[in-house]
Amino acid sequence: MTTTQAKTGERVTAAVLIIGDEILSGRTQDVNLNAIAKYLATYGVDLCEARVVPDVEQEIIEAVNALRTKYDYVITTGGIGPTHDDITADSVAKAFGVAAPEHPEIMAMLRERWGEPNAARRRMAHVPEGGSLVKNPVQGPPGFQIGNVFVLAGVPAIMRGMLDDVGPRLRTGAVVISRTVRVTGTGEGTIAAPLEAVAKAHPDLSIGSYPFFAPPDLYGASLVIRGRDPAQVDAAVEELVAALEAAEVTGIERLEAGGQ
Prior knowledge:
By secondary structure, this protein is of the alpha/beta class. Helices cover 37% and strands 26% of the residues. Strands 3-2-4-7-6-5 form a six-stranded mixed beta sheet, sandwiched between helices. A four-stranded antiparallel beta sheet has the order 10-11-9-12, with helices on one face. A hairpin with a 2-residue loop joins strand 6 (143-146) and strand 7. The radius of gyration is 22 Å and the shape is elongated. It starts with a strand and ends in a 6-residue tail after the last strand. The relative contact order is 0.14.
């Protein structure tokens, strides 16, 4: 399976649905969102929304249906293990209006490892009808894809391994590039006006200000310009530097190109 390129100028979008009471309670800190966002960016796919829902069937169904109709892709994490609260596969199946029988290939994997699996382990073999498996190169059973929804594990190392089988299935867009103008010794109050002027002149670009502080007296902001057209991004950088200099801002530094 290979990626396909989106039409020129066409935006490819995605959402992440994080499933689990443990995330909402604070017992577990999510790190998957960051990894997924960075991974999708390498394929030119914009992560536009992230939601966290509890291990409640109706909450999962409603979130999956809302996100899969709004975005090109949805990636879920969590809830595909053997315990009573691992209800993601069955819930996603209900969102699509199909059954979630035991997948023969997963059942074969389970039997090879444990012999005849018990009821709890058999839960990990549930895959919605019409779904295809997503390889798991780390340990345990695979995830799956149904329609534009990818259902992955919640354990970070396993989830990252599964992502390698997701990328080739995506319709890719132009990769976003970023440039940073770092301003030291000037606060955001002075920077705001020239930054806003450049942002208004380039509505197709994403332009943001990220302040930094380092005691006792180092402060400033990193002004990040992001877009898909390198020439437009570079032109905006030069306009921003000129606008800052016109506002008598000092300590201006152009940084090397960053990531997505």
